[in-house]
């Protein structure tokens, strides 16, 4: 069966929450209120649907978002324009099937029209080399490291590699179209609260 990547729907948030919190230690847990805040404020919040079920999701924020992540703040202090990948989760039964690359290709197609960089982090835990290899093969490079405090006072501090990918197409898009992208359905992406992101290079702000 084919994979469809599409915008999340509000009634699917419970399923997304369960998927997130079953993902393991590489993904920070969420509660329902925080996930709903993501739904209202994330620029990019899409799911992959396969065989009638949600196989994964990816959440991304632009540089002007009201997002309280410390890792997001780290990038925001250093870079003026970027799309930040807060998290990508793939259901355990779907891992290894290329769904991560499908998501990254989709989020890049959104970001490269609007931003010069795509940002994310990878926890530098023992055994996490596959995640570093995945991002490195996709063009991400380490631009620094950050020690993340133990979540809610539990566990231990975690060091994260802060990764950035330069989006080579952005300069051409900006030079050719300036602040206004063509009005085409595939360019306009739903965003905050299920509304529509205008076809603009300024993140709609």
From TrEMBL:
It comes from the Bacteria. One of its GO terms (molecular function) is acyltransferase activity, transferring groups other than amino-acyl groups. Keywords: Transferase. The keyword Cytoplasm does not apply. Residues 3-165 form the N-acetyltransferase domain. Gene3D superfamilies: 3.40.630.30. Pfam families: Acetyltransf_1 (PF00583). This is GNAT family N-acetyltransferase.
